[in-house]
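Hey, quick one: can you model this chain's 3D structure?
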Amino acid sequence: MSEHQSTGLSIAIYKPTIGAGTYAPAGEYLHTLTNEYSSLTFTIAALGGYWEASFNIQGNLDFVEDWIANGLARHATIYDHAQNVCWDGFVNTVKANVGALSVTRGPLTDVANRVMVTFSERDTGMNPPTAGARAFTTLAQDATSISLYGIMEAFVEGGELDNGVGVTEADFLRDSYLEGHKLPETSKMLSMEQSTQPSVTVECAGYVHRLNYPYNQIVNAATITVSTKVGYVLDGDPGDGASIGDPNNIFTSANASIGVNGLLASRYENDSSLAWEVLKDIAARGDAARGRWLIGVYAGQRLVYTAAPDTLEYEQRLHDAHQRITAVSGAEVRPWNVLPGKWLMFTDFLIGRVQPTTLREDPRAMFIESMTYSAPYGLQLSGVKVGTLNQVMAQLGLGGVGA
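Sure thing. Here's the predicted structure for all 403 residues.
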């Protein structure tokens, strides 16, 4: 029995079911990987949720060729021994090795099949030439790519273009960009000095990376609560008929868990910022008490927007030979089940030397920003100082926590 088998982790693979305006991530079931994968790692972030994962599989030539031909956009769910979801996402890149040949397809997130160019026309009749107002081309799209991968939009910056020819040049740039990005890239490398057994390395991305559609709302400049705005970014603002949310219906407010936060923010958005950028800005603002808030996408494409906790969740003893992490109740938490956005206390560190009043001030406490699990029992946690400065800066429009 291999080491990863003893953990009980498995990877279920499904065909994607995707098209314009419809999305069902877990389509036809294909197979479950248990003892086939030779490596497995995944990362979960407090700001982002299920972020990335990768695994390696060895198989025969037909198996490897199927992954190269059909693997992109497949849905992958990692389960623990009790069939709890540890991570899920979509296949973003496939790397295959067959003999001396290495082939890579993807990343899928570089695909753009609905494209618009933004530019400003430069008035060359003025001395010096003067840039005019911002302008937009019409959208161009590729129906075949959309039927395979769903709508993947790109707003390309065209800069300043001379008046009289600016619109034509912008259209040419739009069409060229679409032609070059409508399908995933495929690259190859031949190494005559090295020959390997057929294998595939599959790199997955969490569905947070599909929050890559532009969000605008230019009718109403009033303020709304940030919780309401989160829902509008997913669904579209009902007060603006031109405002749309997720064009693929991967995300909806009905499927989200949106905590109640009464902090006010502008309803207006006119920069074609990607939905994830808007949502990160909302999270960075925190709340009226300068408390931190978290946002990410988890199992079932469920977006979760919630206040960061201020109570202890996990404990660890540095002198434990097995480096186990336990819940405060004492129950062991397996490395693949540890979550970010939680507080961890090192109980045998600085004993008797500090008497802090809050977790934020306690050097023995760690707020977990991200976790990376590597089979069979590897776990890496990262944490930073937690304070109120980031929230203050974000509320003043000066930036905040990023991912």
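One thing worth noting: The longest strand covers residues 85-99.
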